[in-house]
Specification:
- The chain has about 210 residues and is of the alpha/beta class.
- The protein has a five-stranded mixed sheet with strand order 4-3-5-6-7. The chain has a two-stranded antiparallel sheet with strand order 1-2.
- About 40% of the residues lie in helices and about 15% in strands.
- It has two domains: about 50 residues, Orthogonal Bundle (Helicase, Ruva Protein, domain 3); about 130 residues, Dna Topoisomerase Vi A Subunit, Chain: A, domain 2 (3-Layer(aba) Sandwich).
- A hairpin with a 6-residue loop joins β1 and β2.
């Protein structure tokens, strides 16, 4: 068991080690690094985290993170509101936006169906997507989920829910590697996958 010269240091290590990918040794290194910084810099760092947690909202339309009730993408009149790109989480919105190849709106599911992790359809933002499509204003739903078994399962489930809506359902061209996470695809590959998307029923036939 580690022995710390200060209870405050131990508390900082305990909190930092709760972050994903940070073990106690890494947490100690970070804490000691912060101790060497100017107090103003550390206060600015801490306040940024506090403001992030307390002031960030989720868009009431697409579930993207936002500083207001509706995010800047949904509120942009220059976006094509007849196209919806369905993604797993906020990181995927950022990845698609970085390609500059999509000018529609998004719908963030907040995860994908994964029985092994105890995540079912009811825990995802699927019902609000169905309601949006049933409004009759949507012409195409682009399923931009990771090319994994869980991603494909989620696409299949959502496509069944939207089957009677008459909306066009597309998926990314498989320029994104099978088993690959969307956020790790390079911008050119992901951009081409969006531009060369294919109707979902064509994939089912294959």
């Amino acid at each position: 068991m580690e022995h710390y010269p200060s209870r405050l240091l131990e508390e900082a290590v305990n909190e930092l080690s709760r972050l994903p990918g940070i073990g106690r040794r890494g947490a100690l290194r970070l804490a000691l690094h912060l101790l060497k910084q100017d107090a103003a810099d550390v206060n600015r760092f801490g306040n940024a985290i506090i403001r992030l947690r307390n002031n960030i909202n989720y868009c009431t339309s697409c579930h993207n993170i936002s500083e207001s009730e509706v995010c800047s993408i949904c509120a942009n009149p220059r976006r094509d509101n007849s196209q919806i790109c369905v993604v797993q989480d906020i990181r995927d919105v950022m990845a698609v936006e970085n390609t500059s190849q999509f000018n529609g709106l998004y719908h963030v599911l907040g995860g994908i169906i994964s029985p092994m992790d105890g995540i079912g359809p009811g825990q995802l933002n699927i019902d609000s997507l169905v309601e949006k499509v049933n409004s009759g204003k949507i012409s195409e739903v682009i399923m931009a989920l990771s090319a994994t078994m869980e991603g494909d399962t989620t696409v299949f489930y959502i496509s069944k829910k939207l089957r009677d809506s008459g909306v066009k359902i597309s998926i990314l061209a498989r320029g994104v590697a099978i088993g690959g996470e969307l956020e790790y695809a390079d911008e050119v590959t992901l951009g081409r996958s969006i531009l060369n998307r294919v109707p979902y029923e064509n994939v089912l036939i294959k």
